[in-house]
């Protein structure tokens, strides 16, 4: 078995990570009427500046069928016999279905996984899968284990405002108006593939306390790695990192930029915190 991993740009992969067996299909971001491949941005900071200046009304587009055909073709030409493709929740994006329909036209052994999540939990899912492969697990064993892991994922979102979530249809007009008029803050959760309201409050203290309590519970249940993602406000992300480390100094906490497609939908200065419990 020569195993390749196929992901898309809803997953952040650090440039320092050895990713020779990882292939990426890019989503697109449309800002101020101009489309950009997510892989074309010079840096996350460049993208966040664009989002800050022209983020209202920004949109995203999934990879084209041709993008998937070319990527699967490349994987095949590189001599890979097996592929595991991991994509964001099919309830939020058509990327999973596009990948699945293309995969069926290739002779390789391919498993397309609907992660039911996105961002850091999705990245951790891939990293755990690569570790299983390094340990010599079979293709079916890796897929089965990933399917088990993904059900323990949690991803919380702290949007600065709901303008972009309203524009993208992730929250209703009534929730947006209520939040704006009463200065209500929301904590959202990506659960069962959909973004749901977890907590609402007139201020941030109640929301922060609620989230810290849930992080503490997750650590107690065995979570070892937590991601803190930011859409242009890295300083606040590091504040959250320190909050988490005060709960347990042995926890691995990563601070990373929130990927363009997620930042466009949730808005500039959103904070996201997520994990997968692989010890359940």
Write the layout of secondary structure elements.
Blueprint: E1 3-8, E2 22-25, E3 28-31, E4 34-37, H1 44-54, E5 59-61, H2 65-77, E6 82-87, H3 95-103, E7 109-114, H4 119-134, H5 139-150, E8 153-158, H6 163-167, H7 173-182, E9 185-191, E10 194-201, H8 204-220, E11 225-230, H9 234-247, E12 252-257, H10 260-266, E13 271-276
Description of the structure:
InterPro entries: DegV, DegV_domain_contain. Pfam families: DegV. Keywords: Lipid-binding. It comes from Mammaliicoccus lentus (Staphylococcus lentus). This is DegV family protein. The protein contains ten helices and 13 strands. It starts with a strand and ends with a strand. A six-stranded mixed beta sheet has the order 10-9-8-13-11-12, with helices on both faces. 41% of the residues are buried. It is globular, with a radius of gyration of 19 Å. The chain has helices spanning 44-54, 65-77, 95-103, 119-134, 139-150, 163-167, 173-182, 204-220, 234-247, 260-266, and strands spanning 3-8, 22-25, 28-31, 34-37, 59-61, 82-87, 109-114, 153-158, 185-191, 194-201, 225-230, 252-257, 271-276. It is an alpha/beta fold. The longest helix has 17 residues, at 204-220.
